[in-house]
Write a structure and sequence with these properties.
The protein is α+β, with helices and mostly antiparallel strands. Helices cover 48% and strands 15% of the residues. The chain is built from 18 helices and 13 strands. A 5-stranded mixed barrel has the order 4-6-5-11-10. The protein has a 4-stranded antiparallel β-sheet with strand order 2-3-1-13. Strand 2 and strand 3 form a beta hairpin. Helix 6 (178-195) crosses helix 8, helix 12 packs antiparallel against helix 13 (421-447) and helix 15 (487-519) packs antiparallel against helix 16.
């Protein structure tokens, strides 16, 4: 007969319960220590329990779309804002419509209000526009008419080359005097529009028949069309150092318009731009991420384009790479402001980056906004009010009382029916409660989890789920004792069957919680998340705490001897006599001599 394999533990053997308990206790201590170390010793509460901030947004029609305020666009805006502020769906921010034009955003206390308001109010209209010209951001005084020239027309002697005029260099002729600057800037706009491959209709007329004269008479030169003249005036009058001017710079402009805009360079100085029609839009961006560039040591926002966006980006960068500065730049324009204007020297692929004076938080916030898309409407912040938690506090108090009553009834039932075994159940419930509390406290700053009333209900329901796992195991042990086995083998033989039942039961509960989390929104997601979390913790507690404790206590005389108050008394359970193997007896010999 083959010798048994001593290196392999037999099924149903007790293993090393002390080691398992030690690992569980170390994990519990580590989580509790992490909770105190983080400074968040209580779970973050939702707006119904802790109060918070309520923001009212009023929709405004998008330029060029006078009838944009409709139910479809409002619902789309609600969905985008909810994804921006709610993240994984458990921060308990509430976004809902009010009437035909308003959206109400309720943000729980403890959320970064300033950051949330920026996320909510940012329209995130993203465009990629070619740069036609750029200059220093200050307002330029109008130039007096030069001698021998019509009023408002630049004289040949006062003009500078386009490159120098648009560089924004204080040493360039464009910065020598207000008169020269205004003249040069206006001429730069006109020249840039002539060189642009996609000029406005008005700007293409002067370029249709170039003059053959090497030195045309200024008085005979055709004056720019009204659209170009208006753009020149707007560019020279623009003062990007003033916030009001930056806001009005291109207000009401359509994507295909040539516009003026403001932006800050790497030194933090304001610059003003003339930008051509948009070549790409935010809808061409597939994904965006805020990352740290290890080579430059700065935070940037990387963007990946869709298939159609990649083709557009390759086309525009191929054209820009053949231009001279600054017309080889493309401006990344977010809500009317230039956030970055990189130069292009070759045709680029399906990704781009936005660089600037980003912090980690601002880079990740911008990436978050770009990933979820632009709002179909422009919103104006109407009011910001503080929401109290008086009603929610009363409901929480009532809910905690209900939970305490339910827990007391469970304990009374366990003590009455299982007697000494109820000690193991109560200890397991306490371990589960500590794990749940610490993890919820850590998830607040971690993923923005907020505990609301439905989440409290989910935690109360989990008491029954956890108690049910203990009952399944205890009943399996009793079944083994009824069959005549002693406690220690009964504990080990009952575990495989109880384990399968517990896993199947918890899997069904977790699956229901996961489906509920995916198909619902708002506060119901808090209930589903808490239910799923406590279901997972139930498996952890039963496997790494309840079973090892039961194995250790089975060696104690109080339980092993079947004390009447242990809950495992064989007589009370109706145990059968121990099963014994009968020795096989051969047939009696018939011949006395054979005996």
């Amino acid at each position: 007969m083959a010798a048994p394999n001593k290196g392999r533990r037999q099924a149903g053997s007790p293993g090393r319960p002390g080691r398992t308990l030690a690992l569980f206790l170390i994990a519990m201590v580590a989580l509790t220590g992490g909770m105190f170390w983080s400074g968040h010793v209580t779970p973050r509460l939702g707006i119904d329990l802790a109060g918070g901030t309520s923001i009212t947004l009023q929709a405004k029609n998008t330029p060029g779309k006078p009838n944009a305020i409709n139910k479809t666009n409002m619902d789309t805006a609600v969905s985008i804002i909810d994804r921006r502020v709610n993240g994984l769906g458990v921060s308990e921010a509430e976004v809902q419509t009010q009437g035909d034009e308003n959206i109400i955003v309720n943000i729980p206390k403890g959320t970064n209000e300033k950051q949330a308001r920026e996320q909510v109010g940012t329209t995130a209209q993203l465009y990629f526009r070619p740069v036609l010209t750029v200059a220093a951001g200050g307002k330029t005084a109008p130039a007096p008419p030069a001698s021998g020239s019509p009023s408002g027309s630049p004289s040949p002697s006062s003009s500078a080359s386009p490159d120098k005029a648009t560089a924004g260099d204080p040493s360039s002729p464009a910065s020598e005097s207000p008169s020269a600057s205004a003249t040069t800037q206006g001429r730069a706009v006109t020249d840039a529009l002539k060189k642009d491959e996609t000029p406005s209709p008005g700007a293409s007329a002067p370029d249709a028949k170039p003059s053959s004269s090497a030195a045309p008479d200024p008085s005979a030169a055709p004056s720019p069309d009204p659209a170009t003249a208006a753009l020149e005036k707007k560019f020279t009058d623009l003062d990007c150092t003033k916030e009001a001017a930056r806001t009005r710079a291109n207000q009401g402009a359509a994507p295909k318009d040539t516009i003026v805009a403001c932006g800050q360079n790497s030194a933090g100085s304001w610059e003003k731009y003339v930008l051509g029609p948009a070549e790409l839009e935010g809808t061409d961006v597939d994904d965006a991420k805020g990352v740290l560039d290890p080579q430059r040591g700065m935070w940037i926002v990387t963007m990946d384009f869709t298939g159609a966006g990649t083709k557009k980006f390759q086309s525009i960068t191929g054209k820009l790479s053949q231009q001279q500065p600054p017309m080889n730049q493309f401006a990344i324009v977010l809500d009317g402001n230039v956030v970055s204007a990189p130069s292009v020297s070759q045709t680029l692929g399906g990704s781009a980056e936005i660089s600037g004076s980003f912090t980690q938080q601002s880079a990740q916030d911008l990436a978050n906004i770009l990933s979820y898309g632009a709002l179909p409407l422009t919103f104006e912040e109407q009011s910001v009010t503080t929401v109290t938690a008086a009603l929610g506090g009363e409901q929480l108090h009532a809910g905690l009382i209900a939970g305490a009553i339910g827990l007391a009834l469970v304990v009374i039932y366990l003590v009455t029916y299982y007697r000494g075994l109820s000690l193991i159940a109560v200890l397991s419930l306490a371990a589960s409660a500590v794990m749940t509390y610490t993890i919820m406290s850590l998830l607040g700053p971690g993923i923005g989890f907020a505990l609301n009333l439905p989440a409290v209900c989910g935690a109360i329901v989990a008491i029954g789920i956890t108690a049910d796992s203990f009952i399944v195991y205890f009943e399996r042990i009793r079944d083994e004792i009824r069959e005549g086995r002693t406690l220690r083998p009964a504990v080990e033989r009952a575990w495989p069957r109880a384990r399968r039942t517990i896993l199947v039961s918890d899997f069904v509960s977790f699956l229901a919680a996961a489906v509920l989390f995916l198909v619902t929104v708002g506060k119901v997601q808090g209930f589903a998340f808490t239910l799923g979390l406590t279901t997972v913790l139930d498996v952890v507690v039963v496997f790494f705490f309840t079973k090892p404790v039961m194995t250790v206590l089975a060696r104690k005389k109080f339980f092993a001897s079947g004390h009447p108050w242990s809950g495992l008394d064989p007589q009370r359970l109706g145990a059968q006599p121990p099963l014994r193997r009968s020795r096989r007896v051969g047939a009696a010999p018939t011949d006395p001599k054979e005996a």
